[in-house]
Amino acid sequence: MKITATLKTPDQTATLARRLGIVLARGDTILLSGDVGAGKTHFARALIQSLLAMPEDVPSPTFTLVQVYDAASGAEIWHADLYRLSDPSETEELGLPEAMEQAICLIEWPDRLAALRPQDALDITLAATDVEDHRILSATWSDPRWDAKLNDWIS
Ligand SMILES: Nc1ncnc2c1ncn2[C@@H]1O[C@H](COP(=O)(O)OP(=O)(O)OP(=O)(O)O)[C@@H](O)[C@H]1O
Ligand SMILES: [Mg+2]
User: Fold this and answer.
1) Which of 39, 74, 70 is nearest to 56 (CA)?
2) Which amino acids bring their CB within 6 angstroms of ligand 1?
């Protein structure tokens, strides 16, 4: 399945991210693809902040690779940026496989996962356009659980 949307401002991207946050539960993984500066962290930050138990900054996990947050629901939120991952096996040391089962995971640069890329994730790609600040968002999935979750997401 596939949905696309044009996001004309950073605010529109943040709004869509927060609307997705509402339907997320433990075991849900969002893979965020797109070039450097496409808006992956911007999307993740808005989503995470909308779910936090206590307000806090959401820095890009560029160097830490993973940042973990507590959602008001009690779930953990894992935010990963795998750009600097040297090998997919490193995700085991980071604890990502378990997190993908038990937490809400937002993963930038998921191509680094290679064969460890989860099949039941929601795949989101952000792409720049000729117009400054415009982004095209495409969301694709094959797991049917996303059908219901995304019913009212982009309307
Ligand atoms: N419509 C838009 N949606 C999202 N971000 C936008 C939009 N228009 C402009 N921007 C800007 O683009 C930048 C995106 O930066 P961000 O760090 O989110 O990129 P990224 O995809 O995470 O890059 P990286 O691969 O380096 O992690 C931000 O400065 C944001 O304000
Ligand atoms: Mg980023």
Assistant:
1) 70
2) 7, 9-10, 13, 34, 36-42, 60, 81, 108, 133, 135
